[in-house]
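Human: If only I could read backbone structure tokens as easily as an amino acid sequence. Underneath my words sits a plain record pairing an amino acid chain with its backbone structure tokens. Take your time, and here it is.
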Amino acid sequence: AAYCGYVLVIMSLYWITECLPIAVTSLLPVLLFPIFNILSSNATSQIYFQDIQMLFFGGLVLAIGIEKTGLHERVALKIIMFFGSDPKWLLLGVMTVTGFLSLWISNTASSSMMLPIVVALVKQLAKYNPAFSNKKTIPSVSYNKVNDASNLDTNTGFKVEHVTYNDDEGTFHEETSEEHIANEELQTPAGKKLMKGFCLGIAYSASVGGSGSLVGTTPNLLLKGFFDTNYPDGGLNFLTYLLFSLPAAAMVVLASWIVLAVIWLPKSELMFFKKKPKTAAGDQLKKMIKNRYDQLGPISFDQISVGILFVLCVLLWLTREPIVDGWHRFFGYDKYVSDTTPAILIVILSFVWPKNNIFQGHKYEHLLKWSDMINFPWDVILLGGGSLAIAKGFQESGLSTWIGDILKDVMPEQKGLALLIILLFCGFGTEFTSNTSMASIFIPIANSLASSIGIIPHYFLMPMTVCVSFAFLFPVATPPNAIVFGSGYIKIKDMIISGISLKIIGIAVLMMAANVWLYPIFPNATIATNTNVTESFKQVTFASNL
């Protein structure tokens, strides 16, 4: 137990300080566990590519296909067109789109894609809306997609602002051009505040949206991997996670919209249900959005193909173990089929499916090529493996029992108060390190506490996993914050002003979720344990109990 504790401390320090690359730190259990006789080299190595890692692999490949074809931008512009030109409703539309995209692709990709679109929208608002403009003509706003200068539309006047950071929800390092004078291009205080509100809306909805589905961000999959190893009959799958986390994420995004609108929009724009007359600003904005959408051209065959594969994958995830008997029953129940099965099916189809319609005489070309995987985030796979290895070492060494006994003496006996302390600690701790690191460290610790108190593991682990994605206060907390901060339109104090209230709201929502709708989703769950529970843990499925 002492040796395992030593490995945990070393890895935690390395993850937080990033004195080694996060992926390299994640390999330490392969070296140290056999040396300290915690786990054999063979047993440790097998952890790094378990079922949950394959699920993560499949989700990332699907996201690569969506980004390669540009389907996500088409969907984003279409939804924004639906919300109209009123600033408050447009802000809600932007946040809805960003949050939805982050359910399926990385929050880094969704926020970096949405930022240049939003900058152009706000430029039009500030230019034509009398609430944000003056008589002076406003120059072009400038920004570029992070890490993808090749996609820069030179006709928009966007200017490159370089931001580099760890791609897996980690720390970033900013390089700000001295010539970047973004805020000077917005001539009025109201226009500058409008830009701040929209930029923060992108960052917050991207982070919160990623917490809403099992494949949205790395901590969610780490939780699934922990349950697969320690509570294989614990009832946690794509659907049950969605049922718990999506309502909470939607409530926090809605609260974020209200907070940002109140703080950053003029009072004249806060008449939420009063219909405003048509204005020149609204017409110009609608025209600009439509022109941007029309520039994409008609929807292409590869976009349709990726859309079909995406919908098929989500349907297979949702119907594997739904309210009635799912399709997995035809293949030996959960003994043989998991959420990984449809994910890998879609991966294989993506490399087989034609990019163009071969029935119209086009040459056969793969929808996805292996060369598209050149920038695949393999470090995320290693990070997940390292986190799961630490959790397994906790169990095998007896460290989990020891920590659980200590926490039982320190933490309050009331489970609600204990959960509040966990959420406060993880919620504010994730502001200073990556959410993946926080989840990796505290999932086994929270499980030990649940065991010592004598409650189901879901009560602590699920709200805590969602909470580590609620990073609202600092740029270093998560890539979406880093991306919008690097644009030059917001300052750290702007994040703190908006983020502190959202942090409190997010924790309150998760407290409600844990006490209101968690138990109906997992009605037969038994208490947490620090030992191998494969034999003793009672089979729980949301479907069968409804």
